[in-house]
Amino acid sequence: MERKTLHISTSPHLVKGVSTVDIMRNVVYALLPVAAFSIYAFGLNALLVIATAVIACVLTEHVLCRWSTKDSTIGDWSAVITGLLFGLTLPPSFPLWMVFIGGVVSIALGKFVFGGLGYNVFNPALVGRAFLQAAFPVAITTWSEPFASDRFGSVASSVLALPFMEPVVDAVSGATPLSAWKFDKVVAETQDLMLGLVSGSAGETSTLVILIGGLYLIIRKMMNWRIPVAILTTVYLLSAIMHFSHPESYPSPQFMLFSGGLMLGAVFMATDMVGSPITSLGVVIYGIMIGLLVVVIRLLGGLPEGVMYAILIGNALAPQIDKVIQPRVYGTKKISS
Amino acid sequence: MSLITFSKRTFRHGVHPPENKHGTAGSAIRQFPFAPEIILPIAQHLGAPSKIVVREKQEVLRGQLLAKASGYVSVPLHSPVSGVITKINNVPTLSGKMVPGIHIQPYPASGQEAIEGEPIDVETATQEEILAGIQQAGIVGLGGAAFPTHVKLKVPEDKNCQVLMLNGIECEPFLTTDHRVMLEQEADIMTGIRYLLKATGAPKAIIGIEANKKDAAIHLSKHIPEDLPVTVQVVPVKYPQGSEKMLITSVLGREVPSGGLPIDVGVVVVNVATAAEIGRLLPHGRGIQERVITITGPGVLDKGNYLIPIGTPLRFALEQVGIEGTIKEVYMGGPMMGMAVSNLDISITKGTSGVVVFTERDIRANQKVYPCINCGACVDACPLFLNPSRMGILAKSKAYDEMAEQQHLMDCFECGSCSYVCPSHIPLVQQFRLAKGIVRKRKAKQKVA
């Protein structure tokens, strides 16, 4: 036995194999099929938008870290997730210069000012998107049809629009199922919604692919299944009640569940651990609140879509939910009612 | 009458670290040789250290008193070997502190017969006599805490003990001492239970065992004497079920009140190895001289469970079992709650339940600490339903009083489940230990002022 210095650490001397970086990397894996389907459906436009979003987010994170003389944190993959999610929430033919600005805002305003990973109050991707919604309301509600015949051969002129110039709206543009319902009372087929044969944001159209990604994370225990389940159940039940009481004014619960950004938001954005409560009961309440807000904004508000605002409000409420919902500590008496 | 029950009931939360017990679970307890020099630090238990009653150059017999108890919360120390005292000086201990210690050189030619003292007859002895006998035998909790057993067994006047709980859970990964003791020392355990039932006045005893030691549970249930009110209960495997509170919740469904003791819910908990030692020593009036420990870990060549003389230097023990590669980390106790050794020149003491050795190639590089991402894994792991995430954030801003007053910091028994699951590798339990120490000091200061 050689005499060498012993390594000293305090117990526990074992750690579970899963690290924060593993979780982040797996979220990226789960998002890749969603991005792939988006590119398959919307072609080069979506590819450019998603790539620009990821590059903008990662670059911003790197530059800000170096600027504040810290080590770059891009190795933790969280900026990649923000970039992917942010890109997937945009219309597939969104001007790239706007994408870039939005990506910078996502990281700088949504994450960095709060102190970086773990400290942000709101989902950074949604912060970026909310900024764009306010700054470029027309561009962000200009949709293109999926599966256009020349989608891999040409790029929409709006995508390559010069910065600060009014983008030229392409000839072929389509309404999302939600706006079609809201403004024209046209209801899309559930099957088309499931498969993603409709127009919408780059990554929100195919329910099926999103669910597969979510299922992967749930199986790997890297996502709290209670959040999407609470949101989707709330939306389904509430819209079912409204639909069956006034079938002519409100769409079916299936339509509500599978249209717009609900699936992408419920599975990938509301589940962002940083912005959601920490206890099991807390996340259920958080999910129900988001579900309620989605239904209220969509069916009673002026906007066709409400998922983004619902999740941002949910994020804002999460710390309050954590304050109210404290687990009963072992050995302390239950508070009698 | 069925003496064994398999229950699905367990406490809530907790974790499942890899068990790693296969290396030693099947190996019978083997006698360990005497080291050329036995070194006995006098502080081998919680409470006041014992007082040395021997001098240098004195010849001692195996079982002879070396140091007497210095108060109620203290136990005596007996010689584990016949030999000559070569030195009495300060020796290093696991905690890093230097304490007075006795060096004994064994006589190789001696038969090493242990001397007997005043036997204690379980039939005729009074409760007080049994408690005194347990103290005189130098017995402390062999599960690792090393708290004097007679103090724990003393039921306060205004309370009564309904259940004597024998702790055969052994939930720490790697350790198999209790497992082997249950398989090999069934008679000692049963005798020990007789003493314990009388000492506590409990009408019945339950032996709690985790499902990964079914063989031990079946073996013990077969050896329960007709007249002994003992049952065996097998519970699902989960860490930290070996903690008194968790064991009581798993087996009886009762919750020990915050800040309270098991006796507050009518239970006294004793480790099975401690019970076996009581059953082994008291009929002969002997003092404790040796104990069973598991020596294991990826670097150990001859892994096993050994009956090892107390005071055996750790370095000698490791030379005996053989180490492959360079020793990098050594823990006394299991890897979840055990302490890392900073110095191989310390001794095996009454509180050593195991020695786990990791060599160079097993050590993972220090994991990078990431910010808390609020994943909730720690909240789902804490068996006391504390909020380790919140406490970690408070600890970071040194809000120790808030941790104690609003977050039940002092209830934390430092099982380390939160640190184990944290994907960001935040040293949560380590921060809580520190915080608890600071809060205790502040409280003590306030009392003085």
From TrEMBL, chain A:
The keyword Cytoplasm does not apply. The keyword Hydrolase does not apply. The chain crosses the membrane at residues 27-60, 96-114, 126-144, 193-218, 225-244, 256-274, 281-300. Coiled coil: none annotated. It is a multi-pass membrane protein. Keywords: Cell membrane, Electron transport, Flavoprotein, FMN, Membrane, Phosphoprotein, Translocase, Transmembrane, Transmembrane helix, Transport. It is an enzyme of class 7 (translocase). The modification FMN phosphoryl threonine is found at residue 176. InterPro entries: NqrB/RnfD, RnfD_bac. It is found in: Cell membrane. Its EC number is 7.-.-.-. Pfam families: NQR2_RnfD_RnfE (PF03116). Its cofactor is FMN. Its main location: membrane. The complex is composed of six subunits: RnfA, RnfB, RnfC, RnfD, RnfE and RnfG. Part of a membrane-bound complex that couples electron transfer with translocation of ions across the membrane. Belongs to the NqrB/RnfD family. This is Ion-translocating oxidoreductase complex subunit D. It comes from Reichenbachiella ulvae. The gene is rnfD.
TrEMBL record, chain B:
InterPro entries: 4Fe4S_Fe-S-bd, 4Fe4S_Fe_S_CS, Helical_ferredxn, Ion_transpt_RnfC/RsxC, Nuo51_FMN-bd, Nuo51_FMN-bd_sf, RnfC_N. PROSITE patterns: 4FE4S_FER_1, 4FE4S_FER_2. Its EC number is 7.-.-.-. It is a peripheral membrane protein. [4Fe-4S] cluster 1 binds at residues 372, 375, 378, 422. Binds 2 [4Fe-4S] clusters per subunit. It holds the Pfam family Complex1_51K. It is found in: Cell membrane. Keywords: 4Fe-4S, Cell membrane, Electron transport, Iron, Iron-sulfur, Membrane, Metal-binding, Repeat, Translocase, Transport. It comes from the Bacteria. Its cofactor is [4Fe-4S] cluster. Residues 361-383, 403-432 form the 4Fe-4S ferredoxin-type domain. [4Fe-4S] cluster 2 binds at residues 382, 412, 415, 418. Belongs to the 4Fe4S bacterial-type ferredoxin family. RnfC subfamily. The complex is composed of six subunits: RnfA, RnfB, RnfC, RnfD, RnfE and RnfG. Part of a membrane-bound complex that couples electron transfer with translocation of ions across the membrane. PANTHER family: ION-TRANSLOCATING OXIDOREDUCTASE COMPLEX SUBUNIT C. This is Ion-translocating oxidoreductase complex subunit C. It comes from Reichenbachiella ulvae. The gene is rsxC.
